[in-house]
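Could you help me review a protein record that somebody else here produced? What it holds is a sequence and that sequence's fold in token form. I have pasted the whole thing underneath without changing anything:
=====
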Amino acid sequence: MTTIGIISDNHGDWTTSIAKALSGVDAIIHAGDIGPYQLISKMESLAPTTVVLGNTDGDLPINQSEVATIGAKKFFVQHIVNPHELEESLRARLDYVKPDVVVFGHTHKPFCETIGGILFLNPGSVTRPRGQFAPSYVRLVIKDEKINPEFIQL
């Protein structure tokens, strides 16, 4: 069994509730709009971490997209993704990478839908949700080849 903490859009905020939520996971995925680069070290101190550049992250020395294999599943991570209207270049990249899960952020709204055999997952904003949503993250468990995402409100 592998447990992954998936967060996005904290925009520099790092609360004790975030650290507690991510405590004990096997890996962390952050889908962008992190804030100060030092926050990556805080995540890395909890578990191996995959991060991508968000549209408000300026010139942090991280990539706009990443591919990570965790628990025998392949994750493609990019801050801005519109699952129902993929740009042609992104569609081609996904066809090449063949991920099991696409993790994204930006909208500050939770999203979980399988499209074309790929699970598209947005954890919402861990600190600054929009609309009627509460701050949230995803605790994703991979067990017996099955991917089980759970949205958790902070």
